Amino acid sequence: MTTINRRDALLLGLAAGTSCAVPAWARADKTKVTVALDWTPNTNHVGLYVARDKGFYADVGLEVEILPYADTAAGTLVSNRVADFGVSGAIGFFTQRAAGADLKAVYAVVQTETGRLVFNADRAGIQRPRDLDGRTYGGFGSAWENALIGTLIRNDGGEGRFETVTLGTSAYEALANGAVDFTLEVYTWEGVKAELENRPQRAFRYADYGVPDQHTTFIVSSDAYLSRHPDRAAAFGQATRRGYAFAVANPDEAAAMLVEANKGMLTDPAFIRASMKALVEGNYLARPDGTVGEIDRGKVEAMGAFLFTAGILRDANGDALTSPPDFGGYFTNEYLANAQ
């Protein structure tokens, strides 16, 4: 079970009603801040909705608008000044930043890898990654998938050969009906849904076969915005952290708030509660010591090096980078209150 450390206990104390130190600028009219989502509202976004609807953003002088999800990537909206902050999947963030997008990660939503390679539990012929050689993968069309799956298979002694059928989200239906042999899923969303629907699965964890563990989801901003509005960014980071700390300590209440805020899209409260339970009990939103939000330099550098070596990081012309970037410049913990 997740524990909350003293640092984040302070944040929860603030959430319970203790006043935080509000800078002079924040005591005037609320300052508008926009946040773009990486997908339709889901439990990865819960801390944003909690911070907004519990008044944590208002406490620090912010009026935060969570923008409706659109086809344009959140990183693109942020780097082009359409949104001030955005939720970004880690691989998309790395590739956009490498290509020259003005992006910087300021908050780690997820502390450890939520993805996994899955297949139906009754597939007796699949016992380890090398058994995937020659089988059919239901995929999503990214270079990351090929590098990831090939690494899993080769590190288990296989050749890394598999057929790919690009299906997008239809991959999960194709897996269920046996049209493909395996796919990738986010355990805390698709995996939980499979459990609730009584579709037994087995899985391989990436880190067990040589792929670095990672923060799978970040909140990002731009260097341009951060340099112009450092106090505003710090207020946003502090309040967002309070929102996620509250969600970890009160998952059922946070789930209900997320559903209430998105009635037209989230129509299965039991599923949202189960997803929140998985996020909390699996130490995804918070580390085992209770820390939320902080970005681990080692994880950023290890995943960056993996992507560079795999040839996934490309410049603005689409050419593979010839030398690794300074991944330490890809992120900052500066805007998290009480960050170590």
UniProtKB/TrEMBL annotation:
Family: Belongs to the NMT1/THI5 family.
Pathway(s) this gene product operates in, as recorded in its UniProt entry: Cofactor biosynthesis; thiamine diphosphate biosynthesis
Keywords for the protein's UniProt record, in alphabetical order: Iron, Metal-binding, Pyridoxal phosphate, Thiamine biosynthesis, Transferase
Keyword check for Repeat: no
Official protein name in the record: Thiamine pyrimidine synthase
Transmembrane segments: none
Keyword Transferase: yes
Record field: catalytic activity: N(6)-(pyridoxal phosphate)-L-lysyl-[4-amino-5-hydroxymethyl-2-methylpyrimidine phosphate synthase] + L-histidyl-[4-amino-5-hydroxymethyl-2-methylpyrimidine phosphate synthase] + 2 Fe(3+) + 4 H2O = L-lysyl-[4-amino-5-hydroxymethyl-2-methylpyrimidine phosphate synthase] + (2S)-2-amino-5-hydroxy-4-oxopentanoyl-[4-amino-5-hydroxymethyl-2-methylpyrimidine phosphate synthase] + 4-amino-2-methyl-5-(phosphooxymethyl)pyrimidine + 3-oxopropanoate + 2 Fe(2+) + 2 H(+)
Subunit structure: Homodimer.
Function as written in the Swiss-Prot or TrEMBL entry: Responsible for the formation of the pyrimidine heterocycle in the thiamine biosynthesis pathway. Catalyzes the formation of hydroxymethylpyrimidine phosphate (HMP-P) from histidine and pyridoxal phosphate (PLP). The protein uses PLP and the active site histidine to form HMP-P, generating an inactive enzyme. The enzyme can only undergo a single turnover, which suggests it is a suicide enzyme.
Domain SsuA/THI5-like stretches: 42-254
One Pfam family of this chain: NMT1
